[in-house]
Amino acid sequence: xxxxxxVLHETPSQTAGPFxxxxxxxxxxxxxxxxxxxxxGERLFDNGVPGQRIVVEGCVFDGxxxxxxDGMVEIWQADHKGLFNSxxxxxxxxxxxxxxxxxxxxxxxxxxxxxxTIKPGETPFVDGRMQAPFISFWIVARGxxxxxxxxxxxxxxxxxxxxxxxLSKLEHAxxxxxxxxxxxxxxxxxxxxxxxxxxxxxxxDV
Amino acid sequence: MIKFSxxxxxxxxxxxxxxxxxEFHRHPPAYTPRYKSSVVRSPKLALVSIPxxxxxxxxxxxxxxxxxxxxxDLTVNYADAGMRPALGERIIVHGRVLDxxxxxxxGVLVEIWQANAGGRYxxxxxxxxxxxxxxxxxFGRTVTDAEGGYEFRTVRPGPYPWPNGINDWRPSHIHFxxxxxxxxQRLITQxxxxxxxxxxxxxxxxxxxxxxxxxxxxxxxxxxxTVPMDARAYRFDIVLRGRRSSQFENRS
Lengths: 206, 252
Ligand SMILES: [Fe+2]
Known about the structure:
Chain A is mainly β. Chain A has helices at 20-24, 158-163; strands at residues 53-61, 72-76, 101-105, 112-118, 134-140, 148-153, 182-185, 188-190, 193-194, 204-205. Chain B is built from two helices and twelve strands; from the N terminus they run E-H-E-E-E-E-E-E-E-E-H-E-E-E.
């Protein structure tokens, strides 16, 4: 089998600009009945899906602490057993009715986002070691030239976080805190994202 | 070669090959001060590089079942039945979504948004003098076919002034959001039009580090696919990151 190589190069990124919602969350900004009234990524799971129901809320802040009110946040995660809703996860079938993918405009007044989802199970790292449960985030906004990848880990998983292959390899251990949500109440987590400056969130090159 | 040896069965060895690493020198850097919004929204610290595991290799699957008949026709998808189509120059924007190995990528969710023919967005934060068009919403979506092909019908968006420098105008452009097979392929970009004199003056265009790369964002007039007496065609191919080797290729 021939190993085929890179012969083309990824198209350059451009900022999503301030109006990304027209294309990605039109109903959220009042373009009623766009795509028959439903934005993609509104719901992560149907009622019957097993697993611990959680809320993940947060805010995206710029370098001077101002909420980013024109951004968009997408999340992607495994189900409660750690299986992804994708034919490419060949370890098994994820929960029926679990999409694993969510998308939200940050609130135009407050910059807040809030997802209802299922707490993910652990998933394997490239070497087969298990990772602590996490949710992948992807953030775009006006002024962001290339979408930003980060991960949210759980505050009630201290032991698994300590052994996690990604967290434990971070050069600056003090920055681990930027990847761990805080606990608002039972099953309710807060994950603020700081684009720049003090407490700048760790962003990944994946 | 990276694989999940602990989890693999003999018949179904889930070979997990990552995407080609991203070539950051071909993308705008985070901090591009002539595009002022980037100044406080650009991370200052280096990105942390991690190998692709399943969370980056996988992503949601968007079947053609999510699409309505007019989702990719912006000239009619906002107008109520019986209303006139959108105002402006009627165009077709089409092309292929390829990966870096020059293979068409099927099943890519392609979402676009744009200003109307006068350069005005249907968005509560756009207060430009140019009026809204009651027949134009400015959003469209499709899913690429088996060869990675896609097509939209729309009107050519107008250039518009924007608050950056005192006299900055965006060239005519269409925003593109692309979701391929894996989270690591996620991309948002903008398409420009061949011959637009505003292109070299735009601070957002100029956030791209080399002028030669800008060329790959410029759609070409495609007379061969123009529909006579109806709409001019523009061709725009997009390249997403490729896999080092397909997960489904037989390695034995
Ligand atoms: Fe725009």
